[in-house]
Design goal:
single chain, 292 residues, mainly alpha, Growth Hormone, Chain: A, two-stranded antiparallel ribbon, 74% helix
């Protein structure tokens, strides 16, 4: 759903541009309309969230009245620090994919390489579309071959495609439709990171604290990496040009290979890679309080 929001964001940018082109006096309106639509979708999302049911495992824990004595975050920081550090590294990989290709590159292509804005927004939208459509495929490969093999193969593919993509761009004319096909190729492999990493992070924590366990490293990593990466890339681009986002993406791929190499040391509580004897709680009894 997060990536559907990214797709809607790219459509919003394209829509805002079309509105601005209809009448120059509407330029101030064009960028306000997406915010109005976003607010309406936010209210709908809040309504839908209230009606969602919990997972059977969580319901079982709640019905048995087993709760943590302390705050879930305190338990996470005390017992699951290696998992948190591992998850933050995974979020760096996760953030690099979307930040480089689908957030920074449109601005760079339009502002620095002077590509046609409509072409860039169209290419970005189609790239994100392929990115989303291929996520179920990557998920099924993960179920069949495991996290390490699937993520490792996808990382090597991403690194090769990034080298090809960033060396292709300088050869394209500002109105070349080849940009559209290039972004779609990028989306083919980039979707693997977003299909696998969130579920991988969730599997690191037992049911009783999974929400907090996922949210803490994910929020920290997203705030730091996704929030600052466009600024860092803009500063790097002044000296390195188009090589800056390529280097950043290759660094992300290198970190992904470290994640692949170390995932076997992380106990997992979900999916085909779950340890066979892992309980739903996996928290020491001293950390729990049972109410009759």
């Amino acid at each position: 759903m997060t990536n559907c929001g990214l797709l809607m964001g790219t459509f919003a940018a394209l829509f805002a541009r079309q509105i601005a082109e209809l009448d120059p006096s509407w330029s101030s309106l064009s960028w306000r309309l997406p915010f109005l639509f976003g607010g309406a979708f936010g209210l709908v999302a809040a309504y839908l969230r209230r009606s969602l049911s919990e997972t059977p495992m969580f319901e079982e824990i709640r019905n048995s009245c087993q709760i943590s004595r302390g705050m879930p975050l305190a338990t996470i920081l005390r017992l699951y620090r290696p998992q948190c550090l591992f998850a933050v590294a995974a979020v760096f990989v996760f953030s690099t994919t979307s930040s480089v290709y689908f957030q920074f590159m449109p601005t760079y292509l339009i502002g620095q390489m002077h590509f046609n804005a409509g072409l860039v927004f169209t290419a970005n939208s189609l790239g994100v579309g392929v990115f989303i459509l291929l996520m179920p495929v990557w998920g099924s490969l993960r179920d069949r071959f495991g996290i390490a093999r699937t993520l490792g193969a996808a990382t090597l593919a991403n690194a090769a495609i990034s080298l090809w993509f960033f060396h292709l761009l300088p050869t394209l004319a500002p109105d070349s439709t080849a940009l559209i096909y290039a972004m779609m190729v990028v989306g083919l492999s980039a979707g693997c990171m977003h299909a696998i990493i969130p579920s991988m992070i969730a599997s690191l924590f037992p049911t009783a604290i999974r929400q907090s366990g996922f949210a803490f490293p994910y929020s920290i990593g997203t705030a730091i990496f996704t929030g600052l990466m466009p600024l860092v890339l803009a500063l790097m681009s002044r000296d390195l040009g188009l090589d800056a986002p390529m280097y950043q993406y290759l660094i992300g791929c290198a970190v992904a290979l470290v994640v692949v190499a170390t995932i076997r040391f992380m106990p997992q509580h979900l999916g085909p890679d779950a340890v066979p004897d892992a309980s739903a709680m996996a928290i020491p009894a001293s950390e729990l309080e049972t109410h009759p």
